[in-house]
Design a protein that fits this description.
The chain is an alpha+beta fold. Helices cover 23% and strands 35% of the residues. It is globular and about 70 Å long.
C-alpha cells in the first residue's frame, strides 16, 4: 500500500493532429531552453513539432516535456469533454503542473502530471457545484481518492499481465462486452467522465472544495488492508448495483446493492415483474428529489441540462431504433421487433438484453454496451422497462449512470439532511473502513 502522495498522469487531449495553447509561466523544454507564452504543436512523420508564438520551430521529437521552472500553469485550446454524451462540447482549459505531448499513430496526446490532492481539488470542483454541502464534498473527496489510488495500485500490480480493458465474449447468439479504466496505456486516467471529470483550474476551485480536500487529505476507504475501488454515479435510481454485474466478474464486499434510503431492508430486483414494478413506480429514496436548490448546489451547469435523473422516458419509432442500433453496434438486425430483458442486476439494471430483428437476434451485455447501443450518446441507465406500442418503442427507466458505489445525488440529499461524510460513505460502501494513509 502507498505511504506518500502519488503524482497522477492525466490524459487531457487524445488524437489531435494539432494542439495549441499558452504557457502562463516559464517552462523548460530542453536543458537550456525555457519558454513562455503561446505555442502550437503539430504531428509530422511520427514526431511532435513545437512552434513558438512567432511560428518559430522550437523542438521536435516523439515526445516533448514541459517542466515548470517555479510552479506553473498552462492553457490548452479546444479541449473536448463529455465525449459521446449529450452534453459533449469544447472549451479552453487551464491546468497546473507539468505537460507532456506525445506523438501517437492517431495524433498527439497531451498529458498533465499533477499531485493527487491537487488533482482531486479539480475533480471535486468539476463534478460538483461550488455551493455543494461540505459533508458531500468531503464524502466525494474520500470516494474519488480511493478509486484513483486503487486504480494506480491495480495498474502497477497487473502491468505485466497484459489484461485488456475492453473484455469481449462473442458467440452466435450473444455479445458481452464491458469496459474499464485500463483503456489508457501511456497515462493513468483520462480527464473525462470515462474516469473522473478533471478540468484543472479552468473553473474556480471553491474554498469549500479546498477545505474538503484538506480535511480529508490522505484518507481512504479500505477493506482487508487494501484501498477500495470506490465507484460513483450520478443517480442510482433507488438501489445501487454491485461491481461484478457491471465490470469484472470478481465481486467486492464493499460494492454490493444498497438501498438509497434510511431503510436497510433490501430485496434484489432480478425478477422481471418486481423490477418492472420498481422502475415504473417512484419509491422513496434519497436520490428521488426534484428540489431545485439541492440540484443546483451539486450539479455543474451542463449537468443541469438533464433534469429527469430518477425516472425518465425515451421514445423511438421502429425505424429510428433499427437504424440507431445498426449504427451503434455495427450489426444489421433488420427491422427490430422486440427488446427483451434476459437478465437484470439487483438494482433492476439490465445486464443481458435480447434484440430480436427480422434479420437476426442477438443478446447484448453488459450494462454500458446496452446503453451505448440504445442512444445516440449513452442511455441514462440500463434500468428500464421496454414496451412496444404500434410503431413506437418506449423505454421507461430509472437512474443515471452505472449505479455502482456512491450515488452523487443521494449523497447530496444525505448531506443536506445532516449526515456526516463518514456516515455517507459508509452507507454506500458497506464493509469498508476509513484510514488515513499519508
Amino acid at each position: 500500500m502507498i505511504t506518500a502522495e502519488p503524482v497522477i498522469a492525466v490524459g487531457i487531449i487524445e488524437r489531435y493532429t494539432e494542439i495549441s495553447g499558452v504557457l502562463l509561466q516559464k517552462y523548460k523544454i530542453a536543458e537550456d531552453v525555457i519558454i513562455t507564452g503561446p505555442f502550437r504543436a503539430v504531428q509530422q512523420g511520427g514526431e511532435v513539432v513545437l512552434y513558438g508564438g512567432k511560428e518559430i520551430e522550437l523542438l521536435r521529437g516523439e515526445r516533448i516535456t514541459f517542466t515548470p521552472v517555479n510552479g506553473g500553469s498552462f492553457t490548452l485550446h479546444d479541449v473536448l469533454f463529455g465525449i459521446n454524451f449529450h452534453w459533449e462540447r469544447k472549451e479552453h482549459q487551464t491546468f497546473t503542473g507539468a505537460l507532456r505531448l506525445v506523438a501517437r499513430k492517431d495524433g498527439i496526446t497531451a498529458i498533465n502530471d499533477v499531485p493527487v490532492e491537487e488533482y482531486l481539488a479539480s475533480v471535486i470542483s468539476s463534478e460538483m457545484s461550488a455551493g455543494a454541502p461540505m459533508e458531500l464534498l468531503k464524502a466525494h473527496a474520500i470516494t474519488s481518492r480511493s478509486w484513483l489510488v486503487a486504480m494506480l495500485e491495480m495498474k502497477r500490480k497487473f502491468s505485466t499481465l497484459g489484461i485488456p480493458s475492453q473484455r469481449t465474449s462473442r458467440t452466435e447468439t450473444e455479445l458481452i462486452r464491458y469496459y474499464d479504466r485500463e483503456d489508457h496505456d501511456i497515462f493513468d486516467v483520462c480527464a473525462d467522465d470515462h474516469c473522473q471529470r478533471y478540468q484543472g483550474i479552468t473553473k474556480d476551485i471553491s474554498n469549500a472544495a479546498k477545505e474538503a480536500i484538506t480535511a480529508t487529505r490522505g484518507v481512504f476507504l479500505v477493506h482487508e488492508n487494501e484501498i477500495c475501488d470506490a465507484r460513483f454515479s450520478k443517480s442510482c435510481g433507488g438501489i445501487s448495483e454491485p461491481f461484478h454485474t457491471t465490470w469484472a466478474e470478481t465481486p467486492f464486499a464493499y460494492l454490493q446493492p444498497v438501498p438509497c434510503s434510511a431503510d436497510h431492508d433490501y430485496r434484489p430486483l432480478t425478477n422481471e415483474q418486481e423490477a418492472s414494478q420498481w422502475i415504473l413506480s417512484s419509491p422513496e429514496a434519497f436520490c428521488n428529489t426534484t428540489d431545485g436548490n439541492i440540484l443546483r448546489q451539486i450539479l455543474p451547469s451542463f449537468d443541469q441540462e438533464t433534469t429527469d435523473f430518477f425516472r425518465w422516458t425515451v421514445r423511438y419509432t421502429t425505424a429510428e431504433l433499427s437504424e440507431l442500433v445498426k449504427k451503434k453496434s455495427g450489426i444489421d438486425f433488420g427491422t427490430i421487433q422486440q427488446l427483451v430483458p434476459v437478465k437484470r442486476g439487483p438494482s433492476g439494471r439490465i445486464t443481458r438484453l435480447r434484440i430480436e430483428g427480422t434479420k437476426q437476434t442477438l443478446t447484448v451485455g453488459k450494462e454500458l454496451e446496452i446503453r451505448r447501443w440504445l442512444s445516440p450518446s449513452h442511455l441514462y441507465s440500463s434500468a428500464f422497462v421496454p414496451e412496444k406500442q404500434d410503431d413506437t418503442f418506449i423505454l421507461r427507466g430509472g437512474g443515471w449512470g452505472h449505479g455502482v458505489g456512491l450515488c452523487q445525488i443521494g449523497a447530496a440529499v444525505m448531506a443536506v439532511k445532516g449526515f456526516a461524510s463518514e456516515q455517507i460513505v459508509k452507507h454506500y460502501f458497506r464493509e469498508a473502513e476509513l484510514k488515513k494513509i499519508y
